[in-house]
Amino acid sequence: MSFEKFLFYLFAAILVGAALMVISRKNPVHSALFLVLAFFNMAGIWMLAEAEFLAIVLVLVYVGAVMVLFLFVIMMLDVNLAAMRAGFIRHLPVGIVVAALMLAEMVLVLGPKHFGLAKYAAPEAAPADYNNTAELGISLFTQHLYALEIAAVILLVAMIAAISLTLRKRPDTKRQDVGSQHMVKKKDRLKIVKMAAEEKG
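The chain above was modelled as a monomer; its predicted structure follows.
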């Protein structure tokens, strides 16, 4: 076994273990931290596949920014862990069915025959001046333009949903009403009391 194959199996094993911990941990903060571990191992696999740009983007964008946002939203939402644990067993059969369907779809879509690897042969080595960042950009904005735009719209909807969740009204929290503050008149806040002057003896 070559060293690259050993690294691939090592990264893949840790990735699968971290992914299982993400969906099995009771504490959402622990799940988010295991997701960070999964991202780092996925970045290592992409480095082995000579996709350096994707690996760096995964670490910088998802680990550095998106996971911070996840943790911030988890803290803001104040998730009820007791209710979440109670519904885990009830929804487990549905989750297993959905996971099996997703696995079948991934096998059908990401099978070797769709990437020119029907005989499981290694792809041809790229030339020394090959730029995978430029090739990825050309592929995204020509062949996969509509899929990129749809993904952008979905991310926009998710961002709006996250903002609306954090801005929802809670009865136990105080909120600032800027509109009512601007509508305040002087007579509502200022009261002048006339008093007779007193002489000091």
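The chain has nine helices and no strands.
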